[in-house]
């Protein structure tokens, strides 16, 4: 039986047109975009410019507001550690369910003497604008809230949070790594000053991402690394032209695809939930509204999810204990919302997922869940 990949929160495949667009930039148009004296350099620079325009267009930004990084991890680190490097204000705010690439730099700031507030979330993984407002202090410099959670898909009320931050003169950073590719993004409507993106979450190549830095917000960012002064001195290092080309094509397609593709995925996800719920003893960890269209996270009563997935190896799925990082600690996201990490499975649907795939997943889970429950209770 053909295996079915349902782990699109971990990564997505590169679309064929993305790979096609990248190929000439490895061999034929291989110049260094920083070479100013010949056509190889000019052509590479033109490709970078186009990639930057396409990424900017996906989020409604101007190209000059896009800084290329190696991915969302680096974009988050640059946004948090870079923006706070020379700040007189010493308080920062985030939430309990952020990705480690936000939480860890926040903890690092704490070690450097900053005061950190970690907002708790409700059962849906959500923070409210009121909660955020109450946590603001006169010395708050930055708020970082993930636009879409990578485990339970929660969409946060970023636009409302942004309004509060702007009124208070506080920068708002949002990690949007999971959002691009399946929901439309508009940095103006979102009221964000900084936004992190990752190409491999939206059918582009791994190893490239971007940080949007709003020009008018006047966020003064210190680089995390020094060198040739690329990307306005914020991210020195020779630009990976093929990856930027691929990111651009993926971003352009994602912007076109977001609404219709997202609606299709939401229908499939709802059908999946209906089918799984009918098995009995299954609980939904993801919210049912204001959630990523391709996400479903569920807990199976009386079952160790890792043992369950061993019986279902034909599916590419992730458990709550494998978490998003390289360690195998129980998920801090599921723990924060009071869900049982060890019993939880994350489904991440994607552009290639079909109705037939969903029927097969439901059928196999309906066979295997009762079997594993019985076996492990003997
Ligand atoms: C919400 C979120 N932020 C950041 C990252 C890190 O992205 P990258 O792999 O591009 O460094 C991920 C990837 O797992 C993610 O899901």
Description:
This protein has helices at 16-22, 24-27, 39-59, 72-84, 100-111, 129-135, 158-168, 187-190, 241-277, 305-310, 332-336, 355-377, and strands spanning 4-5, 66-69, 91-95, 115-119, 140-144, 171-175, 194-198, 209-213, 282-284, 295-300, 315-316, 318-319, 344-348. It is α/β, with parallel strands linked by helices and 378 residues long. It folds into 2 domains: 4-11 and 258-377, Aspartate Aminotransferase, domain 1 (Alpha-Beta Complex), CATH 3.90.1150.10; 17-253, Type I PLP-dependent aspartate aminotransferase-like (Major domain) (Aspartate Aminotransferase, domain 2, 3-Layer(aba) Sandwich). The strands form 3 sheets. It has a 7-stranded mixed beta sheet, with helices on both faces. The protein has a 4-stranded antiparallel beta sheet with strand order 9-10-13-12. A two-stranded parallel ribbon has the order 1-11. Helix 5 (100-111) links the parallel strand 3 (91-95) and strand 4. Helix 1 packs antiparallel against helix 9 (241-277) and helix 4 (72-84) runs parallel beside helix 5 (100-111). The model has no long low-confidence stretch (mean pLDDT 95). The structure holds pyridoxal-5'-phosphate. Pyridoxal-5'-phosphate (PLP) binds at residues 71-73, 99, 101, 146, 150, 175, 177-178, 198, 209, 324. Residues 71-73, 99, 101, 146, 150, 175, 177-178, 198, 209, 324 line the site of pyridoxal-5'-phosphate.
